[in-house]
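Format notes (please read before filing issues)

Several people have asked whether sequences and structure tokens are stored in separate files. They are not. Every record keeps both together, in the order shown below: the sequence lines, then the token lines. Line labels are part of the format and must not be stripped during preprocessing.
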Amino acid sequence: MHDRPVSSRSTSEAASGKLSQRLVGSHVVAIGASTGGTEAIREVLGRLPPEMPPIVMVQHMPESFTGSFARRLDSLTALSVVEAQGGELLRPGRVYLAPGHSHMLIRRVAGGFGIELSRAEPVNRHRPAVDVLFNSVASEAATNATGIILTGMGKDGARGLLAMRKAGAWTIGQDEATCVVYGMPREAVALGGVAEVAALADIASRLLARFRRLDNGS
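Then the structure lines:
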């Protein structure tokens, strides 16, 4: 049985110093969001430095919008944000957004992790589905991963986040007060998939603090 999630408040000051190449090169961050997620994702990515492990994301939106959303994020953050094409090798400092027409998965390949796209049937009425991404991260990256579930309606991502936590990943859920719709994070908390609850403005600093602890071996 999992412990109840830790609630974090006001942690605006991020720890200083760069992350180790070992961590940046071996870790994966997975983010899932729906209603209200475009601004929530911008808020999180905008507070992160360019020296980050690769980030893979699902945001529920029509396929005609995912490319422009990726370009907008790329222009507003220090990270390099692209719409996934399939077949890419995950690179540090890069953010890969699932295209609106396909599920996105990661697979372990020579040299790290690669991206796979799938036109399989919708999951939780969504394609791309957060659960599909999170389940693949749980299977392929296990302890070398962090999962973040943000504002959104419904339950997509809750079971996948639980799978990630069971596999040894660290997991963060956006708190109710800062969600546009407290649906997906609520379901993830109820299932026991969330290790830490954080306000939107604190998620980036909590993620960086976690990485610093990993770098220090704690």
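For reference, the curators noted about this record: The helical segments are 21-26, 37-46, 63-76, 130-140, 158-166, 184-191, 203-215. Residues 6-16 have pLDDT under 50 and may be disordered.
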